[in-house]
Amino acid sequence: DSGVTQTPKHLITATGQRVTLRCSPRSGDLSVYWYQQSLDQGLQFLIQYYNGEERAKGNILERFSAQQFPDLHSELNLSSLELGDSALYFCASSPRNGGAYEQYFGPGTRLTVT
Amino acid sequence: AQTVTQSQPEMSVQEAETVTLSCTYDTSESDYYLFWYKQPPSRQMILVIRQEAYKQQNATENRFSVNFQKAAKSFSLKISDSQLGDAAMYFCAYRRWTGANSKLTFGKGITLSVRP
User: Fold this and answer.
1) Cα(A28)–Cα(A40) distance, rounded to whole angstroms?
2) Closest residue in chain A to residue B5, using alpha carbons only
3) Cβ pair B106:A56 closer than 8 A
């Protein structure tokens, strides 16, 4: 158990819908990362937040957005869902940004768009 | 941009034998981290081993060791005394040393099966 929690574990929804994935980092970790794992794209970085502020952006679609709240939990919002958005979405946390700090991964949320 | 390449999609090893998983990467930076992550059927991402680029000594963690060739930009993982529980997908990953963006860049992964 990494100490990072993600809810829900599974999500099935229809095209065009909007969903919110939630991540609670390890206690004391300020940095949260979101990754997407799909058959087509493999594992790719979406976005990072550090202490409430966006720090880095990767291959995140405009239909996707994220935020980190004062209690440091983070949410990834996916809207106008398409079949291709079906994937496993991971959240990872680390104490600080970069340096020698590891990223600890949550169990992931499996999103299925039908 | 940094890239990570794992050219072997699948490998198989006999239980108790040794297997080596290959990884190459491309970067213009001199300081960075390299990682191997294991993803078992549960889909949890588990850190196996980490290597700092400035260290000449290869990292080891119990039955897991790496062969880090900085000039060749090669980073292979050796698993000794393979066990059934080692069956999983293995990802090689790169991370910058410092800077605003500390994302992990992953290879496509390799599926390792262990024959009893």
Assistant:
1) 34
2) A42
3) no
d(CA A79, CA A113) in angstroms, rounded, equals 11
Which residue in chain B has the smallest CA separation from A39?
B108
Would you call B103 and A58 a contact, using CB atoms and an 8 Å cutoff? Answer: yes
Residue B85 backbone dihedrals phi, psi, to 5 degrees: -70, -10
Q: Which residues contact B46 (CB under 8 A, 6 or more apart)?
A: A105, B37, B38, B39, B40
- Closest alpha carbon to A44 in B1, B18, B116: B1
Query: How do residues A12-30 score in pLDDT, each as one tens digit?
Result: 999 999 999 999 999 999 9
CA distance B91 to chain A (A): 9
Tally of residues, chain A: 114
Per-residue pLDDT reduced to its tens digit, B52-80: 999 989 999 999 999 999 999 999 999 99
Select the residue of B96, B101, B109 nearest A42 (Cβ to Cβ). Answer: B109
The residue whose two tokens read 């169990």 is: A107
- According to DSSP, the residues that pair with B114 across neighbouring strands are B13
Calpha distance B43→A107 (Å, rounded): 7
Are residues A102 and B97, on separate chains, in Cβ contact within 8 Å? Answer: no
Please answer yes or no on whether B97 and A98 come within 8 Å at the CB atom.
Answer: yes
